[in-house]
Write a structure and sequence with these properties.
The structure holds three protein chains of three kinds. Chain A is mainly beta. Helix content of chain A is about 10%, strand content about 35%. Chain C has a domain at about 45-85. Classes of the chains: A mainly beta, B alpha/beta, C mainly alpha. Chain B: It comes from Actinomycetospora cinnamomea.
């Protein structure tokens, strides 16, 4: 499957709080950020942790403004996220 | 030990419990005799902050290497005879470069991901809940606690190693080091500098 | 259902403590735990995500009270029991 996103794309992270292992940190859920790079292709950690078969998919470095994550701060945080955690963010919606 | 004793609250010293599990696994063929000692030797002979320092020093003296390092670190570090393949499988290394107005700092908020195969074990503070919780939220305050006061104009980027890649910071070459050769430059680089909690 | 390991952005943790001249391991057993884990991962007894998952499932009170490599050892024994390699009683030496 081709990658869904590329550097420069705006994305929004999921809000689901799964009952199992995941690599989408709570602080980075439900926020918009920008893809800065593709960081390889890997099986989904959520599936591997449960002993499920998993095919490689894209993993991205996504940059967030601290203000969007925490409501304060002038820094940026880049989080490495599996494609499954991301949806396109067509337009900026301020929370 | 009583039958009602909960194994998870075992009061035997942990060293004894580790030895016991090791012996049990050897007895049942899940570990080869001597396998654990071999792995301990391999760990000790594996990564070291000196590898990171050598990479940084080369990047300071060789702009071509610096460019290759930032574009594809795994291939570039091969020029120094180094590799990210020392663990279970080769991991991608991403090197982020500090600049005059830009500072990077690395964390793993979910566990403690770190380029162990290249740099050896991470420091205890890197694995602490205090560092993992705070640095994404208030990096300036955290860096100040480490004695690193950055100008308000410096943009800070925190890299959360939340998935598969491992991260290393390329610090700025200190002023007044024009006369130093690569080996002397490498001696300036600290493990904290490679994580981003020190300037170098 | 967020787990106790997911501490990024949480407030209330104290100042960061640096240990001067910190050794790689503070006791032999810590190196043994790391080596044991590496051997079991190589053998495919479990994978790295299962190992992380086992750490995350440690009850919060115990997670926060345990040292780093105590958490590792606990996760290893949890997985050995769950994979049927040995019973919890056998692992505890009962």
């Amino acid at each position: 499957m081709p990658d869904r996103f590329a550097a420069g794309d705006r994305v929004r992270t999921g809000t689901v709080d799964p009952p199992h292992h995941t690599r989408l940190p709570r602080y980075a859920r439900g926020v918009c950020g920008e893809v800065v790079a593709t960081a390889g292709h890997h099986p989904l950690a959520d599936e591997r942790a449960r002993g499920l078969p998993s095919t490689p998919r894209a993993v991205y470095c996504v940059r967030f403004a601290a203000h969007d994550l925490f409501g304060e701060g002038d820094h940026a945080v880049v989080v490495e996220l599996f494609e499954d955690y991301l949806e396109p963010a067509e337009r900026e919606v301020r929370r | 030990m009583s039958a009602t004793h909960d194994a998870t609250h075992d009061e035997a010293p942990i060293a004894a419990r580790v030895r016991h599990v090791e012996a049990l696994l050897e007895q049942r063929g899940w570990l080869a005799p001597g396998e654990v000692d071999e792995r301990i030797d391999a760990l000790a002979a594996g990564g070291s902050p000196a590898n990171g320092a050598a990479i940084v020093a080369r990047a300071w003296v060789d702009p071509g290497f610096r460019a290759r390092l930032l574009a594809d670190a795994n291939t570039a570090i091969g020029e120094l005879g180094l590799s990210m393949a020392g663990g279970l499988q080769e991991q991608q290394l991403i090197v982020v470069a500090n600049g005059p107005d830009e500072h990077h700092v690395v964390v793993c908020t979910l566990c403690s991901c770190y380029p162990i195969a290249l740099l050896g074990p991470s420091p205890g503070w890197y694995k602490s809940e205090a560092y993992r919780s705070r640095v994404v939220r208030e990096p300036r305050a955290v860096l100040r606690e480490f004695g690193l006061e950055l100008p308000a104009s410096t943009r800070i980027t925190v890299w959360d190693a939340s998935a598969e890649s491992r991260y290393m910071v390329l610090p700025r070459r200190p002023a007044g080091t024009d006369d130093l050769d690569e080996g002397r430059l490498a001696a300036l680089v600290t493990r904290k500098g490679l994580i981003g909690t020190a300037a170098v | 259902m967020s787990r106790i390991n997911d501490v990024g952005g949480m407030v209330g943790f104290p100042a960061i403590v640096e240990e001067p001249d910190e050794p790689a391991f503070h006791a032999d057993w810590e190196a043994h735990v790391v080596a044991l884990n590496a051997a079991l991962l190589r053998r495919g007894v479990y994978d790295l995500d299962e190992f992380r998952d086992a750490i995350e499932r440690i009850p919060p009170r115990e997670y926060l009270a345990a040292s780093y490599y105590e958490k590792w050892f606990r996760a290893i024994t949890t997985l050995l029991a769950e994979k049927g390699i040995a019973t919890p009683e056998e692992l505890a030496g009962a």
